[in-house]
Amino acid sequence: xAGNKSIAYCFPLNATYYNYSNNSTVAxxxxxxxxxxxxxxxxLFALIVLVKTFRxxxxxxxxxxxxxxxxxxxTDFMGLLVTGSIVxxxxxxxxxWMSVDPKCHFCNFMGMSMVFYGLCPLLLGATxxxxxxxxxxxxxxxxxxxxxxxxxxxxxxxxxxxxxxxxLPIMGLGSYHLQPPGSWCFLNISSRFPxxxxxxxxxxxxxxxxxxVSFVLNTVSVVTLLRVxxxxxxxxxxxxxxxxxxxxxxxxxxxxxxxxxxxLIYILRTVLSAVDVHPDFVLLYLRLxxxxxxxxxxxxxxxxxxxxxxxxxxxxxxxxxxxxxxxCSGFDLPHGTRSWTPGSISSSADPx
Length: 352
Description:
Low-confidence stretches: 1-8, 20-27, 233-238, 319-352
Strand order of the largest sheet: 1-2
Strand content: under 5%
Shape: globular
Radius of gyration: 23 Å
CATH class of the largest domain: Mainly Alpha
CATH architecture of the largest domain: Up-down Bundle
Number of helices: 10
Number of strands: 2
């Protein structure tokens, strides 16, 4: 009787009819393995780039931002490693979840991993938006003596928050469910039980709220930064790296919104309107959300300071007194110039 109960809460009634031998391109082991390896290698490369940049950064503000980015990269890397290993193993062996995991412990672990590694990037994006909002709009509110370790505590706090949310089904609020085609576990979206509906709402609303906070604060920060940059007769209160960080943060927010909004909105609409769940849509939206973990690292890799500096150089210095764009061939400006913004020149020897 106990065994039936454990199977009933995480395995759907038609779980035995899932097509475990699906050899289509999208569902094949090769596709899953290549997808995971691409994401892992991209995040590893991005981590190397960030660590190298961090070592040469003397600004506490930029160091804190880079530490938050490192936390995001590590989170994406571990998320792909944990969930990808399970999916690839299933695709290669076609094991039966009912036989391997009759007590649903393994299914719960994967469901927790999906929720944890799904919410962490969204929460970290909102945290970085708050950090930049305070740094740009109230620069003097940030103490110059704030240790770099504070960013590490912030990342740890985000991990704890996402971890507590992922543990809610273990504590009785909601449940994790095996999803078609039988290779992964996630929220029980189709359930009409109040606890399952409540957990689905918590997951979707936390994710959407994080994106909303990021959008509002980033918009205000960009407007403030543009007003300062265009004020050529004023002192350069904002360092050039503020532009670099904001460009990266905007791209992180845009990619996260594109990748995660379809799944989060679909979950919210399904729970509130009590419509039938379409497994194909859930799987499609989940794969789109997973792309976020692959796209994120390329933001840090491609948006290096020298490349962004060259782009802004072309956009902002189109006057008769501007420096020749020939210097951009190597993504470097003339020696002694490292300014991002028009009307301000600073020495490359100056620390951040």
